[in-house]
């Protein structure tokens, strides 16, 4: 089965890489944000890059549009059956488009937020097929989320 | 070597960089420092800094450090703990323009309550922790026993 692991850079990517044992029996590839921190990742894994997307940046809308195009290109080329994501913002178009193209979507809410949901989490909760939280304290915010312990 | 890590957020964290600079100036840093400064613009007087290292370099520097001084980022904290390193954390704060919210305070508290790390909220607390480094007692890190991986694996296999 073709599986796409997708996240922004930094802590989200760190958590995403922790999920590899769940997919290593499948044909998986990575999508993350281009940054110095994410360069020279494990080169044996097929990796695509989105542009870093920051709400503060004045080119924000332009970058979002470019990321939507890149996401579309990746999805058409790879046709993944499952998308697994740990957030954040930049991955939203890929998750939404992927879902529209028939892929199943698995979301793991960030370990970094204990008491309140993330913006990306709230947006993806509406259409994710599997939604996991890493803190039981978030069950109230996401009544249908699954708690199966944390990655750390 | 002490590895100082500010993470990849597009927010400054000059407070920590200034504190490190002052500690070096006062001769309070027990060994050399290597600083990953991210998007902070503070220009240090007493050390060199580099904005980013890639994943592999980060792991090498953590492995080669005497201890890690970091913002409260989950990735760096858990990486350092898994390598049995002592970790001192200063959380980023929203009111200082260091992050979008105060979740780093929550993360720092959770790891501190488990006895894995020490937390400094400001330069004075950091000073006190670093001068008592030898006496600080940390619990060995135990990764939580999680079914998360097997649950996701099970879901994919069921498709």
How would you explain this protein's 3D organization?
The complex is a heterodimer of chains A (152) and B (159). With 152 residues, chain A is α/β, with parallel strands linked by helices. Chain A has 4 helices and 7 strands; from the N terminus they run βαββαβαβαββ. Chain A has helices spanning 11-17, 60-78, 92-100, 119-125; strands at 2-6, 27-33, 47-50, 82-85, 104-108, 130-133, 146-147. A 7-stranded parallel sheet of chain A has the order 3-2-1-4-5-6-7, sandwiched between helices. The longest helix of chain A is centred in the middle third of the chain and has 19 residues, at 60-78. The mean pLDDT of chain A is 92. Chain B has 6 helices and 6 strands, in the order E-H-E-E-H-E-H-E-H-E-H-H. A 6-stranded parallel sheet of chain B has the order 3-2-1-4-5-6, with helices on both faces. Classes of the chains: A alpha/beta (152), B alpha/beta (159). At the A-B interface, helix 1 and strand 5 of A face helix 2, helix 3, helix 4 and helix 6 of B.
Uncertain runs of chain A with pLDDT below 50, 5 residues or more?
Answer: none
Order of helices and strands of chain B: EHEEHEHEHEHH
Write down the oligomeric state.
heterodimer
Helix and strand string of chain A, N-terminal first? EHEEHEHEHEE
Using only CA atoms, what is the Rg of chain A? 15 Å
Enumerate the strands of the largest sheet of chain B in spatial order, edge to edge or round the barrel: 3-2-1-4-5-6
Q: Count the strands of chain B?
A: 6
Distance between the termini of chain A: 27 Å
What fraction of the residues of chain A are assigned to beta strands by DSSP? Answer: 15-25%
Q: Largest chain-chain contact?
A: A-B, 47 and 36 residues
Strand order of the largest sheet of chain A: 3-2-1-4-5-6-7
Using only C-alpha atoms, the radius of gyration of chain B works out to: 17 Å
Q: What is the end-to-end distance of chain B?
A: 49 Å
Describe the largest sheet of chain A.
Answer: 7 strands, parallel
By DSSP (H or I, 4+ residues per run), the number of helices of chain A equals 4
Query: How many DSSP-defined strands of chain A?
Result: 7
Number of helices of chain B: 6
What's the average pLDDT of chain B?
Answer: 95
Q: Could you report the average pLDDT of chain A, rounded to the nearest whole number? A: 92
